[in-house]
Design goal:
It is built from four helices and eight strands; from the N terminus they run βαβαββαβαβββ. It has 167 residues and is an alpha/beta fold. Helix 1 packs across helix 2. Bound molecules: 1-O-pyrophosphono-5-O-phosphono-alpha-D-ribofuranose, hypoxanthine and magnesium ion. The site of hypoxanthine has 5 residues, from strand 8. One of its GO terms (molecular function) is magnesium ion binding.
């Protein structure tokens, strides 16, 4: 395991904050689908997109939810993104009316690969970094490129020393 992070800053997101931000994303998307404002399906990019996608689908009452699995990182080191599981392509077609949801965009390489398979889909992430921002149609919060976002599923509550130390 690495002792030091390769990023200068850490942005730690609680479950509560993620819930609020994913809800805000859903409300922003509400009424903007191509079918009288409606979206026909949500496609979550696994695994990080699954929790936000569930919240978006719940808020917008979308029952058709599928997944696309892209593996691009080993811990914090990026490798070539690969699609290792596709959604039902008969359902998603060229992506029209489909909301693709992920937790964040960083370099944008994951979304580049996903967009190539569903070019007309609307891509939404909860968080965005500047390098990948142009790959996203909607997002809620931007952080700087040198920030690593820590998601609640990667963290645990633990004891910390008081600021002035202990006797
Ligand atoms: O914009 P990029 O630089 O491509 O990075 C963003 C992607 O990286 C992370 O997923 P990861 O591939 O680590 O898999 P996970 O969702 O299963 O954690 C994150 O959840 C995004 O999907
Ligand atoms: O900042 C990040 N946090 C978690 N996963 C990630 N995958 C790419 N960038 C990040
Ligand atoms: Mg991911």
């Amino acid at each position: 395991m690495q002792d030091r992070l390769p990023h200068e800053k850490g942005f730690h997101v609680s479950w509560d904050q993620l819930h609020r931000d994913a809800r805000a994303l859903a409300w922003r998307l509400d009424g903007h689908g191509p079918d009288n404002g409606n979206w026909k399906a949500v496609v979550a990019i696994t695994r990080g997109g699954m929790a936000p996608a569930m919240i978006v689908a719940r808020e917008l009452d979308i029952r058709t939810v599928d997944t696309i699995s892209v593996k691009s990182y080993n811990h914090q080191t990026q490798a070539d993104p690969k699609v290792i599981k596709f959604p039902d392509m008969a359902l998603v077609g060229d992506g029209t009316g489909v909301l693709i949801v992920d937790d964040l965009v960083d370099t944008g390489r994951t979304l580049e690969v996903v967009r190539a398979h569903m070019p007309k889909a609307h891509v939404a992430t909860v968080y965005a970094k500047p390098q990948g921002r142009n790959q996203v149609d909607s997002f809620i919060t931007e952080v700087s490129q040198d920030t690593w976002i820590f998601f609640p599923w990667d963290m645990a509550l633990q004891y910390v020393q008081p600021y002035r130390g202990v006797d």
